[in-house]
Each structure stands twice: as structure tokens, then as C-alpha cells.
Batch of 3 targets.
Target 1
Amino acid sequence: MPIRYNIDVETGILFVNWHGEVSLQELARHWDTLLSDGAFPQISRALTDLRGSTFAFSTAEFWRTIDDHYRDAIALKTFKVAILLAHEDQEKYAGIWKALVPKTVTVGLFYDFDQASAWLLEDQDPEPKE
């Protein structure tokens, strides 16, 4: 599967790694699996690494999928997400995610792992330094 995740229950951090070409079906399968994981309610922070991935779907398809199927489930959570990027195409998709998630979710976009990690672990929610 091109999207893998691990939940560190002790710290409440979700680690997600995307690699290779990701289809819309694989993305939906990932979200369905994650949302049904018994440890999901314990997540307070997430580090999503998109750097090794490409998208086999349009930004419009991505928008519709999030809006139609996942925004309500995400709205039930309050958490902080750092998204690691390698190029501008990934930033377009991450920007859609950031625009659609509710105000209870703080999203930072980063090109540097150390900056993303430091921001994610801060107690406060300042604007990320990109």
C-alpha cells in the first residue's frame, strides 16, 4: 500500500508516509482504515510525509473526496498536523487539505523535517515557518 501509518499511542502522534503513485482508491482505503482504527481517537498530532509520492488524481477529485466523505469525521477531532512536502505539486494538494479541515485542526506545511517536527511538538500553535 502506498500510504502507511503508525500511531504512537503513548505520545498521541500519528505518523503517515506516502510513497510512489497514490490513487484516489488507495487514499480512500487509507482514510477508511485509519478512521476505523481503535487508536485513532487518541491522536492529538500527526506528521504526514508526502515527499516520496505523486498523485494519480486531480485536485478537484481530491477536494470532492474529502468534502463528501471525510470532513465530518475529521471535524470530530482537535489536533495538529505537520505535512512534509518536496515540491509545489504536493503543496497544492496539502493546501486543499488545509482549506477543508475544520478550525479544530491546525495544519502546517513544511519542506524541512526538523522544522516540521519542532513545530508539531510545540505546545502552542504558532504559524509555521516555511
Target 2
Amino acid sequence: MRWFRRAGTKATTKAATEALSTEPTEHISLVLNVVYHQLQPERKYHILDLGSAYGSNVDFFSQFPCKIHIEDLYQTLSSFDFLSPEDGFSYDVVYDYLLPYGRNTNFDLIFAWDLFNYMKEDEILHLVLYLGKFCRSGTLLFSLISTAKHIPESPTRFKILDQEHLQYEVSSPVLRPCPCYEQNDLTRLMPHFTVCNSFLLRNGFKEYLFRYDN
């Protein structure tokens, strides 16, 4: 099994493909602004970033005492050809291998970005259950869920510009169908997480801020 394999993914028409620009674009992020105003300069934070590594993102959080763990999970799983659930391994074994955090690790903030748009329901469920082992009551998770019928074939790269602006970098003009997860889907797939903020943006995304309560 190849995680996130593209076999069977239908390309869109040439016109639709050409309409998707790969030029970086700047967008407001209402959830990022909410998160920023909850951070306290005197407290140390543990942050998990499941997207692409950007120095600017690290620099942004360096204004607070924090330890940042970065794992481009899509990139890792898309080239992952062993220890898959289809080969008899549990999701826990796979995620434990790829995200080997100590038992005493407790994340305060998790950036899932648009990763869930590229995962099947069971992959999301088991990832969230696994991450729950490293959450405390009050852990926040930021996710962007696409409301469009089609999305780029791989996740968008998000660069933090300031406390309320993100730069979106689309890696490919090729499109794939979007699962279009609704809030009730996410609630079902994310045990112990509740929505504390959600904002429908004009750029085809809905931002969610989830809070972990156990």
C-alpha cells in the first residue's frame, strides 16, 4: 500500500487545470489571529506542525518560549510503502513509527493545516486518536477544510506572514476531487475535540479551531 496514493484520482479538464495558479497568494487567517491572542509570553509552549517546514513559521513562534516539532506528514506518508494497515499493521504502529514522541510530551498547539482534505476518514480518525495521547485538556488544533469541489493534488504550503495573514503556496496546478468534509464529519472523526471557532473564508476554505477536552 502507498499512503495517499494517486491511482484512480481523475484529473480535471485542461481548462480547470490552467485556472489554478501556483503563484503564492496572501490571505487573512481569522483562526491564527485567535490563537495568537491566546498565547502568553511568560509561558512555554509545545507546538506540533504537520506541514512543510518554513523558517518564517519558526521565527513567528520564536517570540514565545516554545519547542516546535515539525513533521511534513503528507510528504512522509505519500512515499511510505511499508508497515501499512493493509499489511496487518495497526495505524498506531504506523503513527508511532513516524511520530515517535515521548510519553511525557504534551502539545499545546497542533497545526494540521489542510492535511485532512487528503486523508480518508479512517486515517483521520486514527491519527487524531494517536495525537490525543500527546494532548492535554485545552490543546488547540488548527485545520483548514476545503469547501471546493476540487483541490490541488497535494497539500498547500502555508507560510505565516504575521498574526493574521498566511501565504498560500500551491505545489501543482493539477486538481483532484475534494472530500468536502462537513463539521459533523469532523466532530465524528475527532474524538475529544470540539469546535471552539470556525470561519468560512472567501478563498474556498473554512478555518477550524478545535479544543481537546478529555
Target 3
Amino acid sequence: MSLLDKYNEAMARLRADVNDVIHNDMRDGIAVAMVDSARTRVYDAYSPKKYQRRMTLTDPSHYKFYPIDMGVEVESPITGNPEYAPPASSGWNPGYISHIIQTGDGYPWLTNGTDINIGPRPYLDEGMKDYVNTGKANEDLADGLRARGYIVE
């Protein structure tokens, strides 16, 4: 086996192990970052008058992870609360609340002045940025690689 073949084999093994760490070992840290982001960017942003919150975004088990190469996509597939839905004639769709929250679209009662226009409150991408920018992602990645036998300083 040539030196180049050995290098390519080692790089493929490292890439596979990094993916394994990201997809398995880092989920808890990412979920904590999502919960913290939801708490500060969503729940602390305002107090609704028209509906009562279920606080589902503060439950880490509500986040779903989809592995991608050298990364992970996160979503929060929680639907709107039908208890506070406007009449069907309004066109209300109890879609994923993460879309409603992150874009600011989907609050039909705002048109009748019963609540404030809160606008978009992106929390998923911002939570991931927090996880990376605080250094927590690097710590979790290093810990996962150490657990797989790598020497990481």
C-alpha cells in the first residue's frame, strides 16, 4: 500500500469518526443549545395575550436530528395548538410552530389587534451558532474523538 493510499485511508477513517461523533455524541449539547436559544429568543421576547404557551420548545426531546455529511440538521416538528386556533375560515394552518416563530408568518389574529406583532424570532440557526461560538461544539467533538482513541489537545 502506498503512502498516499495510507493517507487516504486514514482521512476516510477520521472523517467517518467525526461524522459518528457529530451524529451521536453531540446531540445532547446541540439540544441544550436549542432549548437555551428558544428560551431567550422565543419565550423571553414577549408574553402573548391571545394564547397560552405550552413551552414545548424547552423540552430537548422535541428536537429531531438529521445527519448530513460533517454536520447535522435540526428541526422542531411541533404543530400549533388547535385550542387557540382561529376559525377554519381564516385559513389558519396548524403547521410547525418553528416556521411560524422563525419567520413571523402565521399569526392571523394579529390583524385584529389582539396581540403585538412580534416578528420573526429565529432560534434554530442561532442556537447552532451559539453552540459553535461558545466553544461547546469543539469540546464535545474533542471528547468524542478522545473516546474513539484519538489524541486531541
